[in-house]
Design goal:
Cofactor: FAD
Pfam families: Acyl-CoA_dh_C
Number of helices: 4
Protein name: Acyl-CoA dehydrogenase C-terminal domain-containing protein
Order of helices and strands: HHHH
Number of domains: 1
InterPro entries: Acyl-CoA_dh-like_C_dom (IPR025878), Diverse_Acyl-CoA_DH (IPR052166)
Structural class: mainly alpha
Distance between the termini: 29 Å
Keywords: Oxidoreductase
Strand content: under 5%
Number of strands: 0
Helix content: over 70%
Radius of gyration: 21 Å
Largest sheet: none
């Protein structure tokens, strides 16, 4: 996403309207960064859970750690794959919305 956004920023030296493409992608980038950091934190928690499950743990703790692993698996298989489509959207951002006459609003 950053590569595409920097490309739009560089293109703004020739065509200032390319800055609109950068602006249209900022929220998407921030949300993607949040998802990525959340995934990283979940993976770190899963490492702790796996280490704990390799030893002797009580029944309640076992369920807790297994829940951590399940949450990580869900997030990594259901949420993180969306980042690929979000990147594609950023790469293909155009200024169609910015070219509409103000009277349309």
């Amino acid at each position: 996403m950053l590569t595409a956004m920097f490309g739009h920023l560089t293109a703004a030296q020739e065509d200032m309207t390319s800055l609109y493409k950068v602006a249209q992608s900022t929220s998407r980038l921030l949300l993607a960064a949040g998802d990525l950091i959340t995934g990283w934190l979940l993976v770190r928690q899963s490492e702790v859970a796996l280490a704990a499950l390799a030893g002797e743990v009580g029944s309640a703790d076992r369920h807790f750690y297994e829940g951590k692993l399940a949450a990580t698996r869900f997030f990594c298989t259901q949420v993180l794959p969306r980042l690929t489509s979000e990147r594609t959207i950023v790469e293909n951002t155009d200024n169609a919305l910015m070219e509409i006459d103000e009277a349309a609003f």
